[in-house]
Design brief:
alpha/beta; Spore Coat Polysaccharide Biosynthesis Protein SpsA, Chain A; 2 domains; 8 helices; globular; ISPD_synthase_CS; IspD; 2-C-methyl-D-erythritol 4-phosphate cytidylyltransferase activity; nucleotidyltransferase; isoprene biosynthesis
């Protein structure tokens, strides 16, 4: 693959927000979807990558592809697979994804960060331009619906104010409803007690390890990030390239944008749009997707936005 074209340093925000009337600008902009699907899903167990496991009659990845395919406002969807992965048709048969609109790019990297960046470069090869929008979505969020996608698009494209964060982009998210506790790993029997010292959260604390409460985290103002996360192709590519060059760890696209000093919009998402992460999550997703109107379509939302 040819090296990605370097962008000029972005001034904030004028350099990446076209200086046209908003109504005229929207007519010239396109929207692309990007689904990184190169991870192993090791926390979900069962060996097979979780995005390929069956849920309510379809592979998990089918639901995200179907949701974007049902949105006429999405020009194209790029599915990013690992270079050594199989095409979906070879893995599941040609009929499994019949009627869905997507392009496959075997450019997945060692991390989600690299996979998204390589996927953006692939979209540019397909004709995407810097001022176009891209919606990046987790393959492991099968509860996405067309209404959620359209809600995000309307909120982001309607953010046409004159402030420094206007037309930056935004993400689906839900307010944190529960009390949050910071976990503290229990010392091993051979370790001396650290009770006399201030508690420090363990960086390697695993979900299954026994632990104690190290403190309560105030939840006021906290939101749980979801996907899609929608930004302009050019500014997101620059943000990810800058983060990669500096060695910064970014766990989602919004955090890369935040490093530029920008403040993306929070858009109310849905509890339906949860991320399948652990083995027990599959049972919940199966119930959710197996119910009436579960399959994504242009006329069904399944949304519980708050």
């Amino acid at each position: 693959m040819p090296a990605a074209r370097r962008l000029h340093a972005w001034c904030i925000p004028a350099a990446f927000v076209p200086s046209l009337d908003p109504s005229v600008r929207r007519m010239s902009e396109r929207r692309f979807a990007l689904i990184p699907c190169a991870g192993s899903g090791s926390r979900a167990g069962a060996g097979l990558p979780k995005q390929y496991r069956e849920l309510a009659g379809h592979p998990m990845i089918w639901y995200a592809l179907a949701a974007f395919s049902a949105c006429e406002s999405i020009s194209a969807t790029a599915l990013v697979l690992a270079p050594d992965d199989l095409p979906l048709e070879a893995r599941f048969g040609s009929a499994a994804f019949a009627g869905l609109r997507f392009d496959t790019a075997f450019v997945g990297g060692q991390s989600r960060h690299e996979s998204v960046l390589n996927g953006l470069r692939h979209l540019v090869q397909l004709g995407a331009e810097d001022q176009d929008w891209v919606l990046v979505h987790d393959a492991a969020r099968p509860g996405l619906t067309p209404l959620m996608i359209e809600t995000l698009i309307r909120a982001v494209e309607g953010d046409d104010g004159d402030g420094p964060d206007a037309a930056i982009g935004g993400i689906l998210a839900v307010p944190v409803p529960d009390t949050l506790k910071r976990a503290e790993a229990e010392p091993k029997p051979s370790e001396p007690s650290q009770s006399s010292q201030p508690s420090q959260p363990s960086q390697s604390l695993q979900r299954s390890q026994p632990s104690r409460i190290g403190g309560t985290v105030p939840r006021e103002g906290l939101w749980q990030a979801q996907t899609p996360q929608m930004f302009r192709v050019g500014v997101l590519r620059q943000a990810l390239e800058d983060a990669l060059a500096s060695g910064a760890v970014v766990t989602d696209e919004a955090s890369a944008i935040e490093r530029l000093g920008l403040k993306p919009r929070l858009v109310n998402g849905s509890l339906r749009n949860f991320k399948v992460t652990y083995p027990e999550d599959f049972a919940l997703a199966e119930v959710l997707l197996g119910g009436p109107s579960a399959a994504p379509s242009a006329g069904s939302s399944g949304d519980r936005s708050r």
